[in-house]
Amino acid sequence: MRLLQTPVSCVLLWISFVRAQSPVITPAVQVSFGERATFDCETGIKDGNALRFYKQIPGEVPKLILYHHHSYTDPKYGPGMSSAHFTASVDSAGTKYQLIIKDAEIADTAHYYCERWHSGINGHVFSQPSKLTVTGANYPEPEIVLFSPQPEVASGSIQPTLTCHISNLSVPFGTVNWLVDRKMVQGAVTGEPARDLGSNTFSMSSYLTMADIKRDSQVTCQIQQDGSTSITARSIKLSECS
User: Fold this and answer.
1) What is the predicted pLDDT for the residue at 170?
2) Which stretches of the chain are assigned E, i.e. beta strand?
3) 3-class DSSP state for residue 124?
4) Which residues pair with 26 in a beta bridge?
5) What are 133-160's pLDDT values in tens digits?
6) How far apart, in whole angstroms, are the C-alpha atoms of residue 241 and residue 107?
7) Is the pTM of this model over 0.85?
8) Which residues pair with 123 in a beta bridge?
9) In whole angstroms, what is the distance from residue 235 CA to residue 237 CA?
10) φ, ψ at 11 (rounded to 5°)
């Protein structure tokens, strides 16, 4: 037993060490459209390795925004990124970096990370994700299509599952709620992460499965995109399903 405990203890110590060396980024950031958004990243160490900032849409590979080092005059940019929208700075100690988005747009809504190479473990160490939400913009109204269960399912012979497909989303984040006869449903809801459709538009799907929905019930699916004050909703009556 003692032989088993030793390697387990070593693994736990190694995990703790790696976590202690990981850079720490600002928690979630919320700014108004057109405002400046900043992310602080504390590395805790000054060495010869540059710090990188990444942007990630859920379900996609992170994209390199830029990398910076205390010895650089200016940051270096990743593919498709430029100083027109992004910049970075580093403090005099060479341990605290800042990513700056000069004028936040809806398309900037995403998760952000900082990362550096750690020579001690001979590997990359990433921060936790930080989410940026941009408010105050005119979000186009998303499109909602409700797919009802088959007639025999809706009549009560099988547990019904309704599908809510939402497209033309401006951001990959949003809160989807289901209501049955105007009452919020708790539980019985599953969903899928947003999919990037290109041109800064997204789609997502949500599912409601309930055994006790009455045939004459009105079912509503509604969404509020992160950063938007508007709620878009669509409803159907199971009795009208055909």
Assistant:
1) 95
2) 24-25, 29-32, 37-42, 51-56, 63-68, 76-77, 86-90, 96-101, 110-118, 123-126, 130-135, 143-147, 161-169, 174-180, 183-184, 189-191, 195-198, 201-209, 218-225, 232-237
3) strand
4) none
5) 999 888 999 999 999 875 545 455 457 7
6) 38
7) no
8) 118
9) 7
10) -65, -45
DSSP code string of 105-123: -GGG-EEEEEEEEETTTTE
Query: 137 is written with which tokens?
Result: 């913009």
Q: Spell out the residues 6+ positions from residue 73 whose beta carbon is closer than 8 angstroms to its own.
A: none
In DSSP terms, 66 is beta-bridged to: 53, 77
What pLDDT, on a 0 to 100 scale, did the predictor assign at position 118?
A: 81
Query: Which residues, 6 or more positions from 92, have their beta carbon under 8 angstroms from its beta carbon?
Result: none
Per-residue pLDDT tens for 170-195? 999 999 999 999 999 987 889 988 99
Q: Which amino acid appears at position 70 of this protein? A: H
Tokens representing 162 are 């309704």
Q: Which of 192, 195, 206, 194 is nearest to 163 (CA)?
A: 206
pLDDT in tens, 101-122: 999 999 999 999 999 988 777 8
Asked whether residue 9 carries a pLDDT value surpassing 50, the answer given is: no
Longest dimension (CA), the chain: 70
DSSP letter for 142, please. P
